[in-house]
Predict the 3D structure of the following.
Amino acid sequence: MTWHDLRNPNDPELDALAERYHLHALHIEDCRHGHQRGKVEEGAGYVFVVAKPAHINTAGEPEISDFVISVHEGNCPSLQTSLDQLHATVDQSRPDQVLYKILDASVDAYAPVLDWYNDAIDEIEDAVLEKPSPVTLQRIFSLKRGLIELRRVLTNMRDVAGHLQRLETDLVQHDLLPFLRDLFDHLVRNVELVEMHRDLLASTMDIYLSSVANRTNQVMKVLTVMGTVALPSVVISGFFGMNTKGMPWLESPHGTEIATVLMVVTTVGLLILLKKYDWF
């Protein structure tokens, strides 16, 4: 068995291989143009598979790479390590076994990405409870967009694994079917994990909105109490500020002290009353 592993989709050797193995022009075009969806197609004497691995990049963010048969676009370190190890044993493998191992390595690459999302959601849940902010809200939306993209890729890969099980071709031998079913089960489990993460993010969004509403209510409560407490002083100062004759203590040398004491007493009395009714 011969395995041609091209690390660059623009490698001229791809054209030579297409002519040598009679590969369809549309399949070569899919190799050359990235961002294809996962799929399985039967050609004349070969099976064309598009797989979509994922990894965590140097910035600590999940990134989905394009991987078409054995033509690479982008860099997925975990997948590349598996392929380098696979090169050492390829002479003892059948083509369908190599295909399975490549797909299995692609599926294994999703595990760190799902773990990263799990940790990120845990951090956001703590943030929305302790100190919700617009930055946290933006982070929630960013994770939701990433999970939507990851779910799209995983469902495509699940369809690829399911399609491979149904192929009626001698290129995929019968003894490989249990391994393909196991691959399908892993992808189904990963899709379920993504759905669970999306539900957790939706719950986190609800918690965020509730936290913001509670903080707003607390602020309004404090402002209301402050306004209520200041009301007696405003009334008393306004009363003594009226330009009329016959006001009590108007001519008294201690009028200011009397008005001040009256304000303090009414304010303290009002605070005691509010505390009695648990308004604050």
Summary: The radius of gyration is 35 Å.
